[in-house]
Design goal:
- The complex is a heterodimer.
- By secondary structure, chain A is of the alpha/beta class.
- Helix content of chain A is about 40%, strand content about 15%.
- Chain A has 13 helices and 14 strands.
- In chain A, helix 3 crosses helix 9 and helix 3 packs antiparallel against helix 12.
- Chain A is elongated and about 90 Å long.
- Chain B is of the alpha+beta class.
- In chain B, about 65% of the residues lie in helices and about 10% in strands.
- In chain B, strand 2 and strand 3 form a beta hairpin.
- Chain B starts with a helix and ends in a 5-residue tail after the last helix.
- The chains are: A alpha/beta, B alpha+beta.
- At the A-B interface, helix 4, helix 5, strand 9, helix 6 and strand 10 of A face helix 10 of B.
Chain lengths: ~350, ~375
Amino acid sequence: MFKYVKQLTSLVAMVAVLFAFTTETMAAKKSKTLKNTQKKGFVRCGVSQGLPGFSNADAAGNWTGVDVDVCRAVAAAVLGDANKVKFTPLSAKERFTALTSGEIDILSRNTTWTLTRDADLGVTFVGVNFYDGQGFMVRKDSGITSTSQFKNGISACTNIGTTTELNMRDFFNSKGISYEPVAFEKADEVVAAYDSGRCDTYTTDKSGLAAQRTKMSNPDDHIVLPETISKEPLGPVVRQGDAVWEDIVRWSLNVMIEAEEYGITSGNADMMKTSENPQIKRLVGSEGELGGKLGLDNDWSLRIIKQVGNYGESYKRNIADTGILPDRGPNQLWTKGGILYVPPAR
Amino acid sequence: MKIKKILPQILTLVFIVLIFGFFTMNAQENMETRGLDFGFGFLKESASFDIQFSLIDYDGSHSYARAYLVGLLNTLLVAIIGIILATLLGAVVGVARLSPNYLIRKTASFYIEFFRNIPLLLQIFFWYFAALRALPMPEDASLLFGSSFMTIKGFYTAAPIWTNGLVFFAFFILAIILIIFFNIYAKRKQEKEGKQFPKFYISISLLITIPLLSFLIAGVDLSWSYPEIRQMSQSSYTFDGGFKIPPELIALTLALTLYTATFIAENVRAGIQGIGKGQKEAAASIGLSPNQVLKLVVMPQALRIIIPPTTNQYLNLTKNSSLAAAIAYPDLVLVFAGTAMMQTGKAIEIVGITMATYLTISLAISLLMNWYNKRIAIQEK
């Protein structure tokens, strides 16, 4: 009898070990994208064609920006090196096709989350890394200080293939103002046309306006009007159909935001391993098995924080210190009066 | 023997079917895994975006199908204007290239070498961003031809306001029908009795007098709406009333015309040079004037050389008009394969429709030109 019990327990233990082993690699097995990324050795990331603060390449080809940092965080988590990212600059028109056709694995390109896009395009939005809204830029000498001063016949420059085109119509229609939409494929041409006087106003996301203003021949001649005419939650997007990859990208972003909440920075992350707060310990990987649940090792989040930094560091480095939007506005943590609130990584 | 003939054909067919089948299956499978469905139902949905410039009534409450039509008409508009202007300019420059006058000849060849060797997209950017930028703002624009303004926001000119415009149009059509009949009659008369009419002058006077007659007897009237400047804010102005041509259309037409005309000019030069000197000398020796030599002997033969390569240029111009997307001219590619595709995510359907449309336009131009070419070909008697 005892003999059997012994055999039975060893059998159970064996099954348990086997099961544990399979669950551990299940995530990795299920995700084609994760496997391909690890095989290739770099994360394929779609970004903008140059939007300072979000995704912008310098003369040497180094990409910086808060959107870029999301991809770097994923690279740090999956491959152990935040620099192992291949960036593909995409126009607004090309972005979703590039993602669904498998040319890129993450689209991190100031992309607005809407129901139609989520449902119709075969993509999944994993979160929000910047809360934005559409605004208008005008020339200072026009004397316009509010959208209520817009008059019939105003010409508005913008990009095609964006929610901007749709919001603009809703806005002008609801105000009963006739307008002339001048829509370009690339942002640089929009800026050039507005700057040359072709349009009376330039409309896009306010962060975009602030960033593009720095590209004008004389930035001080232009102002961004205070009104916000739409909600534009911008965030990273992945292909539909790979739930594990979706989770990895979502939680890489969430870790950055939560790290800021708990005061973990790229500088103090290693010291935080011995913190008394269990949530901090979970975030730096010295407690719990969070990484394994995503098919990663347990240092994944520590690498994100050490190599890329927390959300606040990324914002400061890319958006605040570059003078684009010094004030964090709604993109402040919920504990500090903003609306940044992510589910707990536990 | 028979099998030897048929087998390669069958193999080719199987190969094509397999390749086509593979791509269809692949697309189907991938669309399924991404949760995309194939269908044209979206064409009926309301487009909810506005278009800057449209030849038909359109706003965002209309359907995607209507937005497609707007884009198609805008493409056709720029293609037709471009083809007409490029043909005229090309013919003039082509003849100028053979001018005995040194200055004219060299200017023509400089123009050709310059414009045909710069990429078209660059030329479009030049006209739009460099040349138009030099234009004045509406408030600084000076009056042209008594009623028009050329500004950075577009060309504003007087718009005709018709009373009974359809009647006028009917009279105009009537004039054209009469001219055709008259020409047939005059040709017969000449063949039978050798009697010559001043065909050109009679045709022109018919074309002018009959439509004018409609003003007197049919109650047709015409007045003009002139553009008037209006202040929108401290520093920005716009024009009300009148007719507006957007700067995007002007820049695109200019670039397409100047670029394509160089190729057409070379075709014209080649056509004229392809006619033997003996032909011209023979024609002159039977007493034809230089004008008659060109019209009756050289041109009918030269056209046969000119038309086939010029058809190619017409096709190129039409296809090149899709570069409009770069400068916000709302053509088929920008409106339909751009905005509409983005808003609906129906990439395969929309790119398919767009390709089929360009193919149809190109084939139509080809057919028309082939028909014309056949008509002027040597008819063996």
